[in-house]
Amino acid sequence: MDMKSKARISGLLESPEWTKEMEAYRTILERETHQPLPNEMFLDYAKQLSDKEKLAMALTLEFPFARRELRKWPDMLFVKLLRSYVQQAPGNIALKRRLMLTVIQRLPYKNDEDFPPLASLLDEQEERLEAEGFWPHYWTIYFHPAKSGDHDLWLLEMKKLEERWMQSGEANLKSELPEHEEPPEDEQSDNGKLDKKIKILGDLYKKESSTRQRLEHDLVQKNKLLRMKSKEMELLEEEIERLREEADQAAAMISQQQNTQTERDRHWKQEQADWLEERHHFMEQIRSLNQQHKRLERTIEEQKKDLDYQEKDKANLRQAISDVRNQLNSPESIARLLSQSLELELASVAQTIPSSRNDDSRHAALASRNRMRKALDLLDALDQYLQLNDLPLENAERSRAKSAAEPIECEEQAQEEQEPDAHPLLQVQPSPNSLYGTFFRRDHGGFVRLENGESFNITESLVQQHELQHEAELLCTPVKQDGKSLYYDLQLLFQGDDAFSPIHQYDGYIESGEGHLWFCVDMNDSSNRYQIHYKDIEIQKPAHGDPCSFNVAEGSHIARLTKLYRLQGEVLTADAGKTKPVHPAQAEQAIYKKNKEKRKTYKEQPAPFLQDCLITIVGGVRKWFEHVVHESGAELAHDTGDHPERVAADLRRSQALFLLITSTSHRATWDGIDIAKMYGIPHFIIQGSKSNLRSLLWDNREIISKSNR
Which domain of life does the UniProt lineage start with (predicted)? Predict the structure, then answer.
């Protein structure tokens, strides 16, 4: 017996695939899979079938010529193919099951419970032979479950039925010979010789049949013994494995994890088929619900936009009112209003001076002139105050701007030295239809989730073009052209950080494997080999040794190419002690990684290090910074820069101030810096990315945690 058969008996290989037709007779087929098939009886049975029954058998066996519209049945071709299938059946379980299926389908039994007892079949044997014929009764006895329970009785009855068929076959052969009333003497002698030869051949056939059946029986017994020995061997291996696990706990833990993963994969394969069927059933309902949901979202989005416009108008009106109040409450405004009031009073007093010169009128005129004189003196004093107040105010504003501008310039230079590769962001004015969105990385491309809950996919080429990183904040402007679908114009507002994405990024090279397989190999660790996705192989057509950059999703073993660099000329070098060509990057890495730890492409999230701290950020949108600040353990106070007075109270008790100067006003910047200097709060400038904000929080954690306590 070959190794493949032994492995299949031991359970090391998966059983052949079951078709839908086989599932109805699974119990019988599993029991008869490893039993010998009576080849000669099967061929005799097939010859006795009608053309229609032969066509049904050919369709089940998937013969290439089997078609229902055949005018004439090709009997010789059918017998030839059937004989070749029967000869191949002992070495092909799936083919053997299909052959048995052609017979079982014509029987009225589908399970072992449907078969009548063997004793009743033997008692009613003659009646069944006359009513049903020889072959239905023969196959009923052959597939009977008593084969394993009462094997000796079953084997005896099978021999009797085969001998009976052979006798009936000889009788039919003799009956088909031409009869003559007076055959010549020579013909009679020849017929006698032929009868003797037929009898001798019949005896030889009976002996060979009995010998074959005995050998098949011995083969079945040996197969049972082999299975028992295999089970005993498995038990011994389990005992050895148990002792090995007791000796080495670490190896046992790894083995247990591998077995668990294998079991999960097996369960996943079983559940995947059921899931696909359920998925197709629910897709139609989901589509209708999605359409209704989209209509409702459009209505809600329009209402939200109206509310946003109203809120913006209200905010603008409040700001205008606040500016007017500030102007009215300033000393210059009060002085000018007082001057206007005095001028009006002078005009009214001048009109009330009496024109007569009696004593009463002189006293009234003198009082009016004294009042006018004091009012004029006061007006002169106010004019001098306003003239003298202009120059100090301008000088104060210049000195204030200069003193506030100097630390900002120093901080900008320091941040530029720390982040030389920071992406400069532009001041973007969103259109009324623009939406904010967040980019999420995939192993190839990614998707953008808009603020209204919708999302859309973007390709790897767009990710490389805009240099997007995980959780980058975008401004998405919908654009729709005539006759084309809707697409979005993307503008980068706030860069993300690929170090915190669930995607591992590697630099390496292409390596060809066996069986038309291609792999991406990490240049820093050749044990990191990942199979390339078939789409990348079909589209980019990599060659052995090509340098590349590739992504691998966490927990996956499939690599997606992001960049492929074609090699120019011959770059493979042959190792002196090996015959297989070696890539230059692979040849260098033995020296490069001697004492180097394995590179980590995914950063673990640190423990909170700014607990009981309040961080104030001015500029941008709150959701850009909320996740980064919360993962550090601090609380966030935020303002977009339009109304900095709203966070003034939180800023006075915060431990650090961060400014996104590309997305805030100058007034908010200077006001925030003045308050920070007044209370000794450190302030920093964000260089337009989440990674920069994380590094600022981590590098200055000691200063932030100790300030403004």
Answer: Bacteria
